[in-house]
Amino acid sequence: MTKKTFKKTAKWTGSIMLLLVVVLCVHIYIVTRPQPINAHTRAMARIDFKQDLTGNDSVKITAWLYQQKGIDHVLCNPKNDIVVFTFFPAQTSANKIVADFKSVNNYKAERFVPTEAAIAGGCPMSSSTTYKFYSFIKHVF
Fold first, then answer.
1. For the stretch 70-80, what's the b/e string if a residue is b when 16 or more beta carbons lie within 10 angstroms of its beta carbon?
2. What are all long-range contacts of 65-68, with beta carbons under 8 Å and residues at least 24 apart?
3. Residue 137: other Cβ atoms inside 10 A
4. Starting from the edge strand earliest in sequence, which strands make up the sheet with 43-49, in order?
5. Taking 80 as the threshold, does the pLDDT of residue 119 lie above it?
6. What is the pTM (predicted TM-score) of this model?
7. Closest CA to 130 of 32, 42, 64, 49
8. Cβ atoms within 10 A of the Cβ of 10, count?
9. How far apart are CA 113 and CA 48, in angstroms?
10. Is 122 exposed, middle or buried (0-12, 13-18, 19+ CB in 10 A)?
11. CB burial class (10 A; 0-12, 13-18, 19+) of residue 141?
């Protein structure tokens, strides 16, 4: 009777474990698959100024950016000479906004784009076991 119970328990345990692994793989695939840009997707960009900004400059820059199509939110920090804004990529792009800003306004400004090394170093998970498992699952599917 004990051998029969052990086989039955092992069969159920194995079946449940297999089901859980399949559910986990499906979940990881659904969460990590590339999503198309939709109307509700937001992106963030930053403009670095090569000159000192005053409080008046900050107000003018913020007002100009809010008038642009697709801009959602603007934060201007005159202390650090940067502007961070969120926008809807379905309506505009960060490069277009910065190019329009530079052509209309008289500021020395450049869009901040992080280097590949900064992007790789920005994710604390890149060396973790969880990230390695995620990468393995991502390549499998």
1. bbeebebebee
2. 65/97, 65/101, 68/92, 68/97, 68/100
3. 15
4. 71-77, 82-87, 43-49, 109-112
5. no
6. 0.62
7. 32
8. 10
9. 10
10. exposed
11. exposed
Residues ≥6 apart with Cβ < 8 Å to 75: 83, 84, 85
Q: Which two tokens stand for residue 45?
A: 């960009």
Strand partners for 44: 86
pLDDT exceeds cutoff 80 at 21: yes
For tokens 């490069």, what's the residue? 95
Q: How many CB atoms lie within 10 A of CB 81?
A: 19
- Identify the pLDDT of residue 67: 95
Quote the CA–CA distance of 101 and 65 in Å, as a whole number: 8
Reading phi first (left if > 0) and then psi (alpha if -120 to 50, else beta), residue 41 is in: beta
How many Å apart are CA 137 and CA 141, to the nearest integer?
6
**CB neighbours of 72 closer than 8 A, spacing ≥ 6?**
42, 85, 86, 87, 88
- pLDDT band, residue 40 (cuts 50/70/90): confident
